[in-house]
Amino acid sequence: MSQVSFIILAVFFALLIKWLSRVLRRPDNFPPGPSVLSGSLAAIRGGPKALFKMATALGRAGHKVVGVVFGPQKIIFINDTDVAREALGRDEISGRLTEVFTVDGFSIGGNFGVIDSEGAVWRRNRRFILRNLRDLGFGKSGHEDVIQREANSLCETIKNGELRISKLFNIPIINILWQMVLSKRFEMNDTAIGEWIALLNEAVGRDVFIQNAAPRFAERFPVLTGLKGVMDNFKKFRDGFDKEISEHAENLGDSEEPSDLVDAFLIEAKRNPAEFGDRRQLNDCLLDLFAAGAETTATTLKWAVLFMALNPDIQRRCRDEVWNKMGKHVTLTPDDVKRDLPYCQATICEVQRHARVFPGSVPHRVMADCKIAGFDVTENTLVILNIDYLMMNACVGGFDPAIFEPRRFIDSKTGEFNELKDFLPFGIGKRACLGDTLARKTLSVFFTTLVQRFEFRRTAATVFDEEKVLFGLTRSYDDFSVDVVKLV
Ligand code: HEM
Predict the structure, then answer these.
(1) CA 238 distance to own-chain centroid
(2) Tell me: the pLDDT tens digits for 338-371?
């Protein structure tokens, strides 16, 4: 080897070592966690599931916050409700990854919509959606009729015999949301919405962790990292929503009376084009509501049927409560459940606790250097609430957290429903779920209506295998069927 080659090689190795020691070093005063190498390898090999497992193991060992360094990306998991309440209530921990890709695979680069936007755009879109959905009946009793109607229509389609749940709940749940958002309703056998549901299930079932944690890498290798598939899927949604928005604009004309959220947005765009004129904002908001609202509630109901079939005594107790306190034929409201059906309410919470449909919050981007629980956190770190840990370890109520036991949500002295501090299925703080009221109402009406009218029995195909749980944007399980007996 010539002297020149030797010098080039030596400089190369020196630079490599310097780079590796910089990249592989955990920052000073960073929360405890795996070494950079093991954290990164776990993320590459096992994706988010592996990281949650690591964070949960450290949570069990008493760590309220856990730090993982994955290449250049720092991630903090919060394992404690008090720490979460304080940190996620702060503006500087309310950002999202808007830069290149998104946290849920639904928008591409840029500050759009509500789930993936941040700062002024996010605040504006979130407030607009909440205010207008409220005006259109969201969270009010007016909308409860819609929920009840959808629950009734669903029940009419359920027959005695084997039932494969799969996408049973998607259409009624979409209908509830879509009547407010787009004034649209679909029949159970509608093929057009069936295609959208398939797209949605594919999108939320995708593991988008690598694309988000290493967006530039994903951009450079779109096929290898799966980014291309996500983008193709996303484009179909965007084209579909563009068509809906154009039709609405045409029908609305000069009217100032919105009949749904899209109308309200279009009217506001005329009044305030600087802030609402960009249709991509509306398109992304629709996508976000569809993605966040349709799949989560439907998946929770799917878990509810599985848990009822696996726990016949609990199912019977729910049914007895409904029959004894409300009757066999009455149409149930969310207020009935809150006021008179504490065991059913507790069972719905227990379903949500075990299902952990959102095992973690959507990652929050830190927008300015700050501290969390005394640790130093730099800008662009991602902060994730470890809902999986809180629900399955901290959320106890006097019972073994691993077992399915609704009584943990019941006050043993009064028999009343008792919410537990660590029960956070909708997240906490500034970016907590925008649709929690609607979701709670929908779950209570659908669940109680189902146990009132049907018995779900376990068969050889009613199996639960943790290994087959899908861990994409949501935690879902598809691999089961139950035997149904119509009671009423
Ligand atoms: C059982 C059903 C549901 C569960 C478990 C759930 C859970 C969550 C969670 C954990 C978050 C993330 C919070 C964070 O990032 O800190 C979230 C965000 C969100 N959810 Fe839900 N959700 C449900 C239903 C809904 C419904 C029905 C809607 C629509 C009406 C909705 C709309 C949203 C939106 C727009 C966000 C983003 C909020 C933001 O970034 O400011 N969700 N949800």
Answers:
(1) 20
(2) 999 999 999 999 999 999 999 999 889 999 999 9
Cβ–Cβ < 8 Å for 427, 435: no
Residue 448 has pLDDT above 90, yes or no: yes
Rounded to the nearest integer, the mean pLDDT of the chain is: 88
Query: How far apart are the CA of 190 and the centre of ligand 1, in A?
Result: 26
* Higher-confidence position of 100 and 149: 149
Ligand 1 pocket by C-beta < 6 Å: which residues? 114-115, 126, 177, 288-289, 292-293, 296-297, 300, 357-358, 361-362, 385, 425-427, 431-435, 438-439
Instruction: Kindly report the protein residue whose alpha carbon is nearest to atom 43 of ligand 1.
Output: 433
Atom index in ligand 1 nearest the CA of residue 126 equals 41
Which of 180, 351, 433 to mutate for ligand 1's pocket (most ligand atoms within 8 Å of CB)?
433
Distance 226 CA to ligand 1 centre (A): 25
Per-residue pLDDT tens digits for 117-139: 999 999 999 999 999 988 877 65
Closest by Cα among 144, 182, 178, 175 to 258: 182
Sequential DSSP letters for 332-373: P-HHHHHHH-HHHHHHHHHHHHHH-SSSSPPPEEP-S-EEET
473/203 Cα distance (integer angstroms): 8
Average pLDDT value for residue range 75-89: 97
Q: How far is the CA of 316 from the centre of ligand 1 (A)?
A: 31
Q: Which amino acid is at 260?
A: D
Angle at 13 between CA 12 and CA 19, to 5 degrees: 90
Residue ranges and CATH numbers for the domains of the chain are 3-486 (1.10.630.10)
The model's confidence at residue 191, banded by pLDDT at 50, 70 and 90, is: confident
Place of tokens 């994730």: 384
Task: Calculate how far, in angstroms, residue 425's C-alpha sits from the geometric centre of ligand 1.
Answer: 9
Q: What residues contact 380, with CB distance under 8 A and at least 6 apart?
A: 74, 365, 366
Q: What is the pLDDT at residue 192? A: 77
pLDDT of 238-275, one tens digit each? 888 999 999 999 999 999 999 899 999 999 999 999 99
State in Å: Cα 485 to ligand 1 middle: 33
Mean pLDDT of 9-36: 77
Reported confidence tier of residue 324, pLDDT bands at 50, 70, 90 = very high
Nearest CA to ligand 1 atom 3: 296
CA of 327 relative to ligand 1 center, distance in Å: 33
Starting at the edge strand that comes first in sequence, how are the strands of the sheet with 161-164 ordered? Answer: 161-164, 481-486, 454-457
